[in-house]
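Key idea: predict the complex, not the pieces.
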Amino acid sequence: MTVNGEARVCDVKGSESLLSALRDYLRLTGSKGACEQGECGSCSVLLDGELVCSCLVMAADAEGSEIVTIEGLGGPELHPVQKALVDSGAVQCGYCTPGFVVAAAALLEENPAPSSDEMREALAGNICRCTGYGAILRGLETLVAGR
Amino acid sequence: MTTRVRSRTVRDGVGESTARSDGIPKVDGTYLYSSDLYMDRMLFGATLRSPHPKAKITKLDIGPAVAMTGIHAVLVGDDVPGLNAFGLETPDQPILASDLVEYWGQAVALVAADDPETARLAVEAIEIEYEVLEPLTDPEEADRRDSVFHRARCRRGPQDVSGAVVVEGYYEVGMQDQAPLGTESGLAIPDGQGGVDLHIATQWTHVDRDQIVAGLGVEEDMVRVHHAGVGGAFGAREDVSLQIHLCLLALYTGRPVKMEYSRAESFVGHVHRHPAQLWMRHEADADGTLRRIEARVIIDGGAYRSTSDSVVGNAVYHAAGPYRCDSVAVDGVAVRTNNPPCGAMRGFGAVQACFGHEAQMDKLADALGMDRVDLRIKNALGRGDVLATSGQVIDTSAPVVEILERLRRMPLPAEDLSDDPRLLPGGTGLTTSRPMVERGVGYAVGLKNLCFSAGFDDYAEARVAITPFGVEVHTAAVEVGQGLGMSCAQIARTVLGIEDVVVYYDDTSKIGSAGSTSASRQTQMSGGAVMEAARMARQIALERGGGDELDGEGVWKDGVLVTPMKDLVGRENIEYHTRFHHPQTEEPDQNGQGNVHVDFAFAAHRAVVDVDRELGLFRVVQIDTVQDVGFMINPRSVVGQIEGGTMQGIGLATLEEIVVEEGVIKNPTFTDYLLPTFLDAPPIEIEVIEEPSSFGPFGAKGVGEPPTVSSTAAVVAAIRDATGLELNRTPVRPEHVASAPL
Amino acid sequence: MEVVHPADLDEAVGALAAHPGATLLAGGTDLMVEVNFDQIRPEVVVALRRLDDIQDVSRRRIGAGVTFRRLESGDHNALAQLARTIGSPQIRAAGTIGGNIGTASPAGDSLPFLAGLDAEIELHSTSGTRRLRWDDFFTGVKRTARRPDELITAAVLPEDLPDFQEFAKIGQRSAMVISIVSACVFRWRDGRTRVALGSVGPTAIRARRAEEMISEETDPGPTALEEFARLVAREVNPITDHRGTDDYRRHASGVLARRLLERCLSS
Ligand SMILES: Cc1cc2nc3c(=O)[nH]c(=O)nc-3n(C[C@H](O)[C@H](O)[C@H](O)COP(=O)(O)OP(=O)(O)OC[C@H]3O[C@@H](n4cnc5c(N)ncnc54)[C@H](O)[C@@H]3O)c2cc1C
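Result:
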């Protein structure tokens, strides 16, 4: 499979998830696990361009697919979403943050100027326990307004 | 020699919303949490847990697991070399249960294997049989049987006082989970000399260390606990979970061992917020003056003690709320059952109390025909008043009247006209349209004691060093995400006038305890320690450099740089190490009286809730809050704490409950333990009152817990306001609100 | 473990025939939860995510491999409404209607839609194609009449599609939640009405007496609507669990059905 533009081979043993392949085999630990069942969004990645929970993708089914993780999102510079979240104070414990960054980047790719309610709905699959979501919304609103 | 008027303020000092040093690593995915640690030759641990809330272990045969390939250790209670017990306040819980299991999910055996899958299979291979015993799961029954951890009481003033108007109520608070997104995880690395280094997500490294060395039966310096990246805590990491297990496995195998709980295991792996039952009676004069408060509180501590004694104490001391009253009788009990053990969670007893006393204040106002806020203002505590329960004089800022006045003046949200489902109860489920909605408004105000109380030797150590490369701040305090490191750096910058500050989180061998990251205490305690150490370091610098001002360039005298930094610390760093104590508190007397608490913070919330009465669905439209914060070292962090804490309170009001039936958790997953999503999160308007506290750096107060104390009560009050229902239980469920079944 | 990535339908059913007991994997949003929780350990997996032959949607035929993300913007109002409530964007991007049918959970949100329309489930195997009406296909809680060698290829809707269709679902959260009750109401201009409910029985439930009663009413007034709600509430068969009580579910079934009918009538 291709991960962040690089061809990677990952010899998984069985029915492990893509999340496990990324973390345990490729040591790309930016994607986080927190629920193992798609409820929290911490493991969000792009699979062939679609935003999915990598804990619910069977690694073996990602063979030949194109995967973008948090590690592949920014370049030498931070991705605008990353910068927006740092600047607005949306980072506390930060465990949900990589998932939020990937999900928000995917949203803005598809809809460059979402309304606040569209953002809230589109990010409802990402749970944050620290911030109450306020700073995340402010960061993204500022980013969208500044575009 | 340069002569220049130096600027008085240093960049990124206190009062500014500075950038956190872990911000970029956290957004780009490179920040290492305890679960992200890997090592060559590392083994994976797993835990065998009890499937019964109470049972005798009649057979435990590890043979089949030991015989598996890829297994390096299978450990049971008898393998614990030291004391087979741990506990935050009292070591009463077996590290591994040997004869008796007392709650569902209790740890019985450990395995270390080459990979997680093999470890899991080995756990299944262990042969264990139980004789199932009748669990005790009803808290009232436990109270009757005197199965009790602790009884706390307060009696103050004449006990025969009565008022013209009396209201009574019974209230219940469900068991809430802290649900930090990072589950319990860590990596233990044996040092080859009989000692071990543990890298762990925790809230208090030193107290972990103390419990580990007791369990291992080794000297204190054989175990070093390092603070690894923490994915949220909220109280869940104050008790030991897998710390001792990891160290046992690492020492037994001589190899690094990693463990990481699944979400389901996390639900049994840490303590929860105590569920509570409260009976309250308030009596007042016709003009609303509170004359007497009586309360009885039962909290369910579950199978082991953890911090139940302190939580019930707190529930008792907070039972009267932030109100004056000179005739008080409160009894509290923390019962021992076979339910999941409960302990610390943000708000620590005050949340449960507030849910009761604020419902009572609304009831009382209604009975008196008074405005609900007016009644609160009439009885509000202020500086110099006496806390109704403990009788201690409040010698800190206590702007309760101002909080309520300002909250009441904040604009209410406009009448919503939109039919966008995202702005309606039921959300995208499309259950509800605008005409089906009634709106309610609810107020609640609460208080929270700050730092440790009741005579506890509460201190924090810090070391500040001025070096040629900048300032180092050393602490063992745990950064759980709240931004403590940033605040400590800001304090050091402002005191020293030097911008270049780096905070080091030392392991337990390098510095003494900072105390727990809990009880809203670290800004005041570790912040206080950093302030004290920085002040002393500055003093030394001024003496050594022969001047009257210090900054990043060196020591100045009368506006002239007299000792440049390279000369000041070129040969020897300037260092100061301190152990900071807050003013001493007292143990209460037999009536619960005394200077029990060192400081308090106050906050109030006003919730606006839309209710679809027929279906029992509700949506928090907005919640506004005013909080007494002392001084904002970092305004953005303060806002972050208030928003996040408020949201956890909304969670307890609307969704969050661990459902326990006969001792068994029915919903140990994020599919069924529901946390608020982005769409459940209302806008929050925040105002703060900055009136300096009695101690704490620059007058700062802890800000973490107060927002969680009153938000739950405010939301439920708003649902009551919209529906006229009594709603004496939180979380409120649709079936509690829905109009009578057809 | 072996994974087969069939290039077309024939290869897919061929793999199923060759490996009896093979596990079908579509979006994985149900299956991988079971895998992660160690409830199943598949030996052979037939992966359908990239199987083009089951990706088409037309007015009367919805390919099993179509994701809810695609259905969110489809022609059928109720289907789009329910698709929007399935989990989160992450779940909708992966989760398919075929998977929802395959799981046959009592809380599967597409089930009331299929039940209310008397849809047929199309099954394909090396021995051919057959279609089962929804009530022959869904046989119980997470049980279906699918043979292990069969692939679900599509849901097929009847020719006579309703003029109005509405869906709603009650959950405790505003989004990303399993339904406590879900409902679909279909109405034709001539008054014919169908109502199906989810999460209130082992499979979707049709409230047939309520349908009969309200179908007689060409312009139902408040009394008729209340009677309709009452009948719906009587016909469901809910249980109490940690998500909701049977009384509440019964009550909410009636209220939801009535509200949805009102929406049909006013559109
Ligand atoms: C966080 C989360 C939220 C969810 N929310 C909802 C919700 O709101 N409403 C709801 O209804 N569901 C929900 N689900 C469940 C799930 O997303 C849906 O049931 C989804 O439709 C499953 O589709 P899938 O493609 O992912 O199926 P998979 O998981 O790939 O498969 C599911 C089952 O169907 C079988 N199967 C799949 N395709 C076929 C086929 N073509 N032929 C035969 N058998 C097949 C599989 O073998 C498996 O047994 C949620 C799941 C998660 C994790």
